[in-house]
């Protein structure tokens, strides 16, 4: 909402206020608007008709028209000599918080700006939810115009771009655009919530943890019995059998070990897809789920790393501990590779895969978060899996509209994409790769449902 | 519906050297209401009505044409079309010419001309404001200042022209008026 305080010229301030962030001005464009084109012709035509018809009224009206010709020609669109001051109500908001941005524009030049339009450079990842980030006003020298708008914070670091100031001369026949850069930045780092128990596959490290393995040893769950060897702990001797047969046997229990997990998030441009133009993208859903998995796995004693599949490099080595948890939270929240809008640059799949393989620890398994909207994601999962890094595909479903009865959301294209995605999921499952998908349901619920189906 | 989120349209695929792309003015946020501000539309409508009334006083047919022009200006505002506005203004000019040709008095013609210019200017200004900042933004001061300078320009023109007419050329033939005007145009070009 724009502030209703029509402060405008009413508050005249001293021209210099000392220590104040200076606005960097970049002249961008100047042009003729051509809106008064043809006025001279009309005026002279009126005069002509007046002369022919011997009507002084027409000649005089034409003469007034000539006055407008002069009006359109004098005057110059001045550079927007404006000092911008931008304050945000909260520079470290939680995701979904509404942040009020107040902008004050002061004319620091010595000439009035009769026609000034300001368009603030709202970061592309933020959505303006209240009031346009724009104003049109007129500023005398030293006068200030203020306006406010509200943005909804999303995960990531957001920096305001230069505001665009468009000035026109009084008649509006010339126009000049100026960029006004005032650095403002907010960082929105979500808390990571633990996402329940996440089942991992049986590729583990030698460290103790919580993933049950097929290795016999110390543990809680029965695995096998074997004949007694000297040095076996007395606790694990099968005394029932000893009583029955007189032989000594040792119980082997399943060893529970820790796993090394790399959370791989698909952040290619194709993954920035959503059910609706305004809805959260699949990347957003993936990052949220990855955050839950990250916390849950770390709590379970596993070593967790983060990687992004995209044009920008993002790699957090698997690790454990409080410092690592903080680093992981930071990476998921603000890494430019996982930004709420697609990264620039081209993505080279084979180069990326080579680098990823080099970095991936040999005993790491991969949780691959991808919307599975193209074949590359599916084939990548199989290629990583084939290398011995067990892969679990976790796929946010962006092909199902929220409401099925909405006819606009059920186009043949949508159905085709949904069908292709289902086929990919089926192929992956057929190839022995675990896959979970979740749409409207929350990620932990989907995982819990899927866990019931999986064997170890 | 699968749609790649296009929130980056403002800066995402812009030129590195020129972060602000002129074309992104329209695409920057889709929820913005790009209709012209109410004040501009209403002001244009009022000025158009005044123009039609003045032209009606001069000659009924001219008044009808100028009234048509005022409606055209309204339609142009609502449809956000500069071209429609230009056509409407052209019709208004023809209306004034007809009114003058049929022997309308000097004063109503002058008033009709200035009011028509104001009506068109406000409508066109409103449409450009709608394109660039939208209807919901605060624009009152801008529109008021624009209307004021336009009226000032029109008023000054009338003062000069009508004053000269009364003082010097009151009894002169029309040709003398035209010659006087020619001198004024030459002067204006020299200034430019």
TrEMBL record, chain A:
It comes from the Archaea. Signal peptide: none annotated. InterPro entries: DUF58. Residues 1-32 are annotated as: Disordered. Residues 1-15, 22-32 have a biased composition (Basic and acidic residues). It holds the Pfam family DUF58. Residues 225-392 form the DUF58 domain. PANTHER family: BLL2464 PROTEIN. This is DUF58 domain-containing protein.
